[in-house]
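Extended Data, panel c. Modelled sequence:
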Amino acid sequence: MSRVLPAVLALLLSGCGKGQADPAEIVMVFDRHSYAECDLARLEESLRASGAAALSSFDPYALFFPPGERPQSGSFGGGKAGAGLVLWRGGAAAVAVRVFPGSPAEAEGIRAGDVISSLDGQTVADLADPELAAALYGSAGGAFRVKGEKRLGGAINSTLKRSLGGMPTVWGFNIPGSRAGYLRIVNFSRNTTPRLKAEMNDLLDRGAARIIIDLRGNYGGSLEELSSSLALFAPCAGPVFRAVSRHAGYSKVFSAGGPGPYAGLKPVILVDGKTISRAEIFAAALREWGGASIVGGVTAGSVSATRGFRLKGGAALRLTVARLLTPAGLDLEGKGLAPDIILGPTDGPGAADKEGGVFREFPAALASSDPVLLKVFKVP
């Protein structure tokens, strides 16, 4: 769910002052749009007594925004940045397994398959994982020097500057020394489906016999994009998930027109306590279809669909309008999706972003330092 500025939260809790919620107007919106029925008379009474703070008793996702205030997301990556270079350590060097388009690494001519042997004058062999990871992914604007050898011949001797951005919502790489392919899905935003298909085809064309789909920290996205992404894996024509509500306008069955190009694939799916909303449905659907193994921690258990409404005077209200169900009708709200194999951190949202001294944000600049990814090779 969206994060809200502390100042907004303070106003919500106060329930008074400028921009105070109009109980009658909010009750009308609840009556016409809320996912679940509620006692409207009690809702109005509670709003008059406690202000907007009473909303959570009727809908845990409901929020009132005074005029001029709206939810704001925190900066992705916590202010850290990379150079668009993902490495996999092997022996005394590290292989570039992915270089992001438009990144500083690409601008310097570094390509996937190139070998990095030293960083800032120290050999890769002499650098511990946390040291190497900190240089690759750290404060924005910082720079580091890399040396090595190009896959097609020629030396690498470049200074790379860390800059924000440049990371696609879907990306992957073939893991060196194996027939496994890694696929990261950050969210289900616009164009996720064509990118997902392109990355999957690339992994398979390059010899991947096993696919690891990483949904850790995936924060949701579009229902339509989730539907079209799931259709790529659907075993046959039929529902891929459902949105249910007491209002017909918010209820919908999302379906695939036939078997998807990856029907029958048995991926390993990585999840954690920050796997939320649409990503939970994606993982559950692939498991219900008989192929996927879920590895990691219990997911967030937040599969409610919300919508914002403008109120008079410039205020706004967000509330739950529908609940998402898996193809088999499973409701994950408040429970989450339990993995087949518990592995790695199982903390819920808000857990620490570091493990073993290695920053766990994505893109994982030193992918081979990810303990969960390394262990998952042992999952049957």
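Residues 1-17, 346-360 have pLDDT under 50 and may be disordered. This feature is highlighted in the accompanying rendering.
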